[in-house]
Amino acid sequence: MEGIEHRTIKVNGINMHVAEKGQGPVILFLHGFPELWYTWRHQIHALASLGYRAVAPDLRGYGDTDAPADPSSYTYLHVVGDLVALLDAIAADQVFVVGHDWGAIIAWYLCLFRPDRVKALVNLSVAFSPRNPQRKPLEALRAVYGDDYYICRFQIGTARVMKEFLTYRHPGPLFLPKGEGFGHPLDDPIALPSWLSEDDVNYYASFFEKKGFTGSINYYRNLDRSWELTAPWTGAQVKVPVKFIVGDQDLVYNSLGAKDFIHKGGFKKYVPFLQEVVVMEGVAHFINQERPNEISKHIHDFIKKFQ
């Protein structure tokens, strides 16, 4: 990870670890679950080499960033508050934002709450989900998928968890039946794809072994609380320029009616400045690691329009 600098910045009452490289317009990279700043390692190098300042924090509860003990401290407002404070701390009035998985969800809410701080957004895997005022998220998920849906159930050992999630390639909802984990014996070997090395897995695992999964799982545990707190934004639109990229094998793209929402007008209704939707063939959820060069090019081709 040559040339990437690391520092800790005080934001919103917590200490946040940030990896950064380069000089120029700031790109804020937001990782997902179960990941770290490290998920963006390829894009950090690529975009820094093209004249940008790549800034990739470990989000609240992850890696070397503090994990508040109070489980209720992981709502959308808390995490977006961390990011606004980070932008203030690095003197960045407006930035480009790139998000993936939970980082994409947080990016949508950053744009919803503070569009004045975002020049343009490139989001991967997770489309904007408008708030349904009639039903809390966990109730809705249980009604569709039951208690074995992975968001409704969370437990399992660190390196194994990393490999299971990072190599998951089934284009549909992820179920974790009680006592069965990912549906095969825990001592079955997992073959890693060419884009993921044992060193990569061990880097992730080393931080989760040290910190545990509690902080990161608290994001899921706060889905209903975030729903309650975001009632004032019911029906609100995300009004920044957006490019959305997803793999056709992505579990999220193949769940919860996502394809119809993305392609049949719902997405555009709530994200009126949506300019591009890219569906990459043969690619699963961890798209920025599986196809790093293509994703870096997609990011650059879009954000250079807004300089």
Automatic annotation (TrEMBL):
A Pfam family it matches: Abhydrolase_1
Keywords: Hydrolase
Single GO MF annotation: epoxide hydrolase activity
Keyword Hydrolase: yes
Reaction catalysed by this enzyme: an epoxide + H2O = an ethanediol; (24S)-24,25-epoxycucurbitadienol + H2O = (24R)-24,25-dihydroxycucurbitadienol
AB hydrolase-1 domain residues: 25-288
Pathway: Secondary metabolite biosynthesis; terpenoid biosynthesis
Subunit relationships: Homodimer.
Function: Epoxide hydrolase involved in the biosynthesis of cucurbitacin and mogroside tetracyclic triterpene natural products (e.g. siamenoside I and mogrosides IV, V and VI). Cucurbitacins have cytotoxic properties and exhibit deterrent taste as a defense barrier against herbivores. Mogrosides are nonsugar highly oxygenated compounds used as high-intensity zero-calorie sweeteners; they also possess pharmacological properties such as regulating immunity, lowering blood sugar and lipid levels, protecting the liver, and acting as antioxidants and antitumor agents.
Family in the record: Belongs to the AB hydrolase superfamily. Epoxide hydrolase family.
Protein name: soluble epoxide hydrolase
